[in-house]
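STRUCTURE REQUEST FORM
Protein name: Stage V sporulation protein AE
Source organism: Clostridium thermosuccinogenes
Requested output: structure tokens
Priority: standard
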Amino acid sequence: MDLSYINAFIVGGVICAAGQILIDKTKLTSAKILVLFVTSGVILTALGVYQKIVEVGGAGATVPLTGFGYNLVKGTFRDVDQYGLLGAFTGGVKSAAAGITAAVFFGYLISIVFTPKAKR
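Status: completed
Returned output:
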């Protein structure tokens, strides 16, 4: 039996549970939690820890916000190795471009299909 699905479910679930605990038990806003998760992904990747989490959890580790930070750092490291200092400015953007484009595109499509309402 392939455990990759179970591992992804567990790792992704733990990350999401941590976010839910932060929402329920702290006064942090959603925006601050978002920044905390992306920044945590960046720091853990820079320290070499998040790669090990990705190896175990696969998509369960790369899909949540921490995975976005991981993706930024991974692209930056790759481009710094290839282009030097210029890669520090281009690598993260290039590695995250597809995900950002998809989020904007599908967000736009959903806004056309449904009537957005402001939260009160």
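Reviewer notes: The first helix runs from residue 4 to 25. The mean pLDDT is 91.
Form closed.
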